[in-house]
Amino acid sequence: MTDQNASGLSAGQSSKTTIVPVILSGGSGTRLWPMSRASFPKQLWPLLSAQSLLQETAVRAKTVTLSAPIVVCNEEHRFLIAEQLREAGIDSPKILLEPIGRNSAPAIAAAALIVAQTDPSAVLWLMAADAAITKPEALGEAMQAAVAGAEAGKVVTFGMKPTRPETGYGYIEVGATVPGVAGVCAVKAFREKPDAQQAEDFLKTGGYLWNSGMFVFRADTLIREMEEHAPDVIESVRAAVTARKSDLFFERLGSEEFRKVPDISIDYAVAERSHNVVVVPVDLGWSDVGSWDALWDISAKDGEGNVEVGDVLIEDCHNSYVRSEKYLTAVAGLDDVVVVTTDDAVLVTHRDRAQDVKKVVERLKAHKRPEAATHNRCYRPWGFYESLIQNDRFQVKRIVVQPGQKLSLQKHFHRAEHWVVVGGVALVTRDDDKVLVRENESIYLPQGCVHRMENPGKIPLTLIEVQTGAYLGEDDIVRLEDTYNRA
């Protein structure tokens, strides 16, 4: 292996190659319910360490390249993602907002088109925000091979060495080594997710790798491939990129234009149609963390094969995953189970049936249960709130506002509010007055008054809000002014 700099690439490559990480953060991860939900999906949770999967991905990318990442996400998560990147020490990321989810191919095309405007020869390193790598030491050499393949004009994917007959992943059938590009092989075929017998055969036969969905390619190469194999996608995305607008520190793709883009993955749009795709076989300890069983598989275990996270007590259990986000969770006399408790839901399933969690979420959606998509704690760009008590005509919430942040100037038609400050200081606008409310003080906001809360201090503002009225829904908010450009 050649000498490497801190990025993991050889000195020759690092001096001439610009590598731009592109992180896709659009999934909802329903198979990791009740933690992962549409409002706060799995990539934003710290599932394997103190950092979220998104943060781990961004930090990993930072060790390979000095370029700021492009993160493609939806509008709902934009402030959460910006804050998590800031906490992880990621400087000046470009956060690209999709007005609607259109799968991976349009997201990748948008990133490639934007990068190509300044450097068509730049190499893009595409990865999902919600995958885990437990052997990062192998990444440097794999990236060397992938970058070499990309510079040779190839679309390079990473094929992960399988460790079990997994039916939840697609597979890559590996061909011969590509002449002149060490560590890179031809792709014979992409295989759909197999049944159990096929997966066993793939593992026994050899020559098959898990399809990680991680790609490396030059921006101009990807654009040419899409012009050939998915022209309708690239043209619609080009229009959305041209119409994009800046919003605070985000870039919004043109909404009307992007809604016309076909919904298609990069696998179907390019990888399975092109003869220019190659693969780097590698063992990174990769997982898409797509189910509780997969999370158990890559997590540190005790001597009985159990994974315990949070306030958990286990008695005579084996090979189980038990996690609590709030309450004491005790499990006794069970093997091969998953038990997950949050503040509003409990999941219990056999590990072998972990894929069925998605069916649970589908039933919750069919019954219009809010737990299918939202958590009790709801994050906002200014902080968060959570419901403590709710009844027909009143609701009690805890609200936390970060230093220097403020809520929108707003009013309600159907409810009044009483705010009690229990930590920090609140500067409250109430119609024409501005009132400083300190700890252990309160203020009443009658129905229909124009009001705003802000935190002028240096510590988080915490207050208890008591709402009373005939209707307490979150849609009873008329925003008159908003720092964060929300509707």
From TrEMBL:
Q: Which Gene3D superfamilies match?
A: Jelly Rolls, Spore Coat Polysaccharide Biosynthesis Protein SpsA, Chain A
Output the GO biological process annotations, alphabetical, semicolon-separated.
GDP-mannose biosynthetic process; polysaccharide biosynthetic process
Reaction(s) catalysed (UniProt annotation) = alpha-D-mannose 1-phosphate + GTP + H(+) = GDP-alpha-D-mannose + diphosphate
Tell me the superkingdom of the source: Bacteria
The family database entries (CDD domains) matched by this protein are listed as: cupin_PMI_typeII_C (cd02213), GDP-M1P_Guanylyltransferase (cd02509)
Domain Mannose-6-phosphate isomerase type II C-terminal, which positions?
A: 369-482
- SUPFAM superfamilies per the UniProt record, alphabetical: Nucleotide-diphospho-sugar transferases (SSF53448), RmlC-like cupins (SSF51182)
Keywords attached to this Swiss-Prot or TrEMBL record, sorted alphabetically, are: GTP-binding, Isomerase, Nucleotide-binding, Nucleotidyltransferase, Transferase
Q: What is its EC number?
A: 2.7.7.13
InterPro entries in alphabetical order = GMPP_N, Man1P_GuaTrfase/Man6P_Isoase, Man6P_isomerase-2_C, ManC/GMP-like_b-helix, Mannose-6P_isomerase_type2, NTP_transferase_dom, Nucleotide-diphossugar_trans, RmlC-like_jellyroll
- The MannoseP isomerase/GMP-like beta-helix domain covers which part of the protein? 316-364
**Stored Pfam families:** ManC_GMP_beta-helix, MannoseP_isomer, NTP_transferase
Every copy of the Nucleotidyl transferase domain together lies at 21-302
MF terms from GO for this chain are: GTP binding; isomerase activity; mannose-1-phosphate guanylyltransferase (GTP) activity
What are the coiled-coil residue ranges?
none
Q: Which PANTHER family match?
A: MANNOSE-1-PHOSPHATE GUANYLYLTRANSFERASE
Family per similarity comment: Belongs to the mannose-6-phosphate isomerase type 2 family.
What name does UniProt use for this protein? Answer: mannose-1-phosphate guanylyltransferase
In its UniProt entry, the species of origin is given as Acetobacter estunensis
Source taxonomy: Bacteria, Pseudomonadati, Pseudomonadota, Alphaproteobacteria, Acetobacterales
